[in-house]
Design a protein that fits this description.
The chain is an all-beta fold and about 700 residues long. The protein contains 2 helices and 53 strands. It comes from Geodia barretti (Barrett's horny sponge).
């Protein structure tokens, strides 16, 4: 028997009748925070989940070698189980509202059931290769509680218990019964009872408990062994024992503070299936009773195996989302049709992630670039806004290999854009609360050498979004100061001109232009305005514009469901392109999906676009939808679409065919066109004068 208390884990042998010697394993956690425990009896390792450290940890039976296998913010793991035959840990995350599996070292993981309402308990049956888990639901959202069964690879999920007697189910246990007359058991804190049902969810009935009127009693965890059911009562600080036939109960042990989960750990003979040799799979081997091999070779979340069974390192198409204190990857093309996301990086030192872009090279390299900002602490007069730009290998997980390539202490780096022909990173800086610096548009080397070059720093108020068209040596940025506008210039800052201003039709109510992107396929510029609640499109010259999406596009929905508007306050934009089946008949037609984030309402939404020609008058919009609408998607500030196979035009060839790839500059190189380049001098090098092919150093 295994159960946690305030800051320790207890285990008691069940091999000898009436033997209740308590062995205590101390763990380094705050009181009241252990939510669930599990054990690998073969290797003598205990796994436990905590609320104070937001993760899963393991420790040996002597309390030594405490390590974390999953430690990320934020999360709330309410239940976990270990399948020691495959060396996988299954767990329920009630913050992300999903069921996951990970290897016991935490390096390989996959979401098995996403989009649950309020999941809590989990139990594995390694004999039948089945798992059972609870979704408590949400009365306010009219989502009723359910108990699910599924194969241990997440396939074939089925709600087997619904309706009565479910009220607020919490923990669950399973007795396989050696394949005959097996039962599942669960506790319900709404009724304060323990229930059981068949493995198919049939004939549910109460077997023990105190009922909702018993003041002080709070039934929590449940376990089964040898014809007896054990359950914890955190209110009465006792562990009870009951038979499965009579509505009886007796005190098994008492005097424990903060009781929650309880498990009975048995050493089984192993799986019926094919995962005893986990080396057969490239990533994760998961039991599945419904296939001849009794196993599924699974890849990471959002990734499907290649024909040879191997796993790509990243999905073919996905969104990169900066969610204030984390960077996430949302896979788009899953056979299940679900959008699933996994964390790539968590900022734990006071910085918040607020911008993201990427670079794919002809050498098969991939890099994610993201900006972070840190608000002033206010301590000892600290009023400095700090920002930095990081680079991380696209094929690494959990921030491995992340490096800082540029830092600022003069304001907020609002947005970044990578020039894929040179690898240089352009950014906008808002010198908020700083009297010694100007807001500006600048560029730095994307290879970590710094060498900042300020490109535009006059009459900028609050620059925000930035986008590049390197093949035309053009950049665009938004400014939500007074007056708000969208501007363009050459990528060296010259030939600057506004293309959208307040009062310009049809954008006469321009208020807060947040982001701008360039559609390289149609030579159109898209921007979003969080103040006006619109997404608009215009030509490179700004001489023709159209509102693509506005806050009142669906007035019926707005009246009936004010919390589910398709657009409220858009903040960041990105776009994916499709190849229509009739491209040969109509080569001027472009099909695309436009995504935007809304950090205030925690939304990711999209609209399908069909563009004919290179004019905003030919844009047809359809299928307006919210693709992610969960409070777990906390403040999505920036979004970027990535396609590993379908690159931006010229992106893969850019690094090898543009002149900067074959000519060397002392500091920074800028491609003017396909045959000409320009060398730039960084701000930090005095008396440096750029020339077309070199930087000249002069004396004072």
């Amino acid at each position: 028997m295994l159960f946690p208390t305030a800051n320790a884990i207890h285990f008691i042998s069940q091999d000898v009748d009436d033997y209740t010697a308590d062995v205590v394993v101390p763990v380094d956690v705050a009181a009241q925070t252990i939510t669930s425990v599990a054990m690998d009896p073969i290797n003598g390792v205990i796994y436990y989940a905590t609320l104070d450290t937001f993760g899963i940890h393991r420790v040996n039976l002597t309390g030594e070698n405490q390590t974390s296998i999953l430690d990320e913010h934020p999360t709330a793991i309410t239940s976990l189980e270990v399948d020691y035959a495959t060396q996988n840990v299954y767990f329920v995350d009630s913050y992300e509202n999903r069921l996951e599996v990970a290897s016991t070292d935490g390096r390989r993981r996959r979401v098995l059931h996403d989009g649950l309402v309020s999941p809590t308990g989990l139990a594995l049956d390694p004999v039948s290769l089945t798992m059972f888990y609870i979704d408590t639901g949400d009365i306010d959202r009219e989502e009723s509680p359910k108990i699910y069964s599924a194969a241990m690879d997440g396939s074939s999920p089925e709600a087997i218990v619904t309706g009565h007697p479910l009220n607020h189910p919490l923990y669950i246990a399973v007795d396989n019964g050696d394949g005959v007359d097996g039962l599942i058991y669960w506790t319900d804190v709404g009724t304060n009872m323990v229930y059981c049902a068949s493995l198919l969810g049939e004939e549910p009935r109460a077997i023990a408990g105190f009922g909702p009127l018993d003041i002080g009693s709070v039934v929590h965890g449940v376990a089964f062994f040898g014809g007896h059911v054990f359950f914890t009562d955190s209110g009465l600080r006792k562990i009870y024992e009951s038979t499965t036939i009579l509505m009886d109960k007796s005190v098994y042990m008492e005097g424990f503070n903060y009781l929650s989960d309880i498990k009975i750990v048995e050493t089984r003979k192993g799986h019926i299936g094919g995962c005893l040799n986990t080396s057969r799979c490239d990533y994760l081997c998961l039991p599945n009773p419904n296939v001849p091999s009794k196993q599924t070779c699974a890849c990471a979340t959002g990734i499907e195996p290649l024909p040879d069974g191997s796993c790509p390192e990243v999905p073919n198409t996905f969104l990169l989302v900066a969610g204030q204190n984390s960077l996430r990857r949302i896979a788009l093309d899953n056979p299940s049709g679900e959008y699933v996301d996994i964390p790539l990086y968590d900022s734990l030192d006071g910085y918040g992630v607020n911008a993201v872009d990427y670079l794919l090279t002809a050498r098969g390299e991939g890099y994610i670039y993201f900006a972070e900002m840190k608000t002033p602490s206010g301590v000892a007069g600290d009023n400095v806004w700090r920002s930095r730009i990081r680079r991380q290998c696209m094929f690494e997980q959990n921030g491995d290999g992340s490096e800082i390539i540029h830092e600022e202490d003069t304001g907020i780096i609002e947005d970044i854009a990578v020039d894929w022909t040179t690898g240089n990173v352009y950014f906008t800086l808002n010198a908020v609360g700083n009297s010694r610096a100007d807001s500006h548009v600048a560029m730095v080397s994307g290879r970590g050498a710094g060498n900042k070059v300020t490109l535009v720093n006059t009459t900028l108020h609050k620059p925000r979004g930035i986008a590049l068209h390197p093949l035309q040596n053009t950049m665009f940025w938004t400014d939500f100061g007074d007056p708000p506008k969208v501007e363009t210039a050459r990528m060296n800052g010259m030939s600057r001109t506004p293309i959208i201003t307040r009062g310009q039709m049809p954008f006469s109510n321009l208020l807060h232009p947040n982001d701008v992107i360039v559609d390289l396929n149609t030579d159109l510029v898209y921007f979003c305005d969080g103040g006006a609640g619109i997404i608009g499109a215009t030509t490179f010259l700004g001489n023709a514009g159209e509102i693509i999406v506005a806050v009142d596009d669906n007035p019926d929905l707005r009246r009936s469901q004010p919390t589910k508007l398709f657009i409220r306050k858009p903040w960041s934009l990105t776009m994916r392109h499709f190849s229509p089946s009739d491209r040969d008949d109509d080569p001027e037609t472009e099909e695309a999906e436009l995504f935007w984030s809304d950090p205030e309402f925690h939304l990711m939404s999209s609209v399908s676009l069909v563009t004919t020609g290179r004019s905003t008058t030919g844009i047809e919009k359809t299928h307006l939808r919210n693709i992610l609408e969960r409070t777990t998607l906390y403040k999505p500030l920036a979004v970027q679409f990535v396609s590993i196979d379908g690159h931006k035009p010229g992106e893969i060839t850019g690094l090898t065919t543009m002149p900067c790839s074959t000519h060397s500059c002392e500091y920074l190189c800028l491609n003017i066109n396909a045959t000409h380049f320009h060398c730039l001098c960084p701000d930090s090098v005095p008396n440096c004068r750029p020339r077309s092919a070199e930087c000249v150093h002069t004396s004072v």
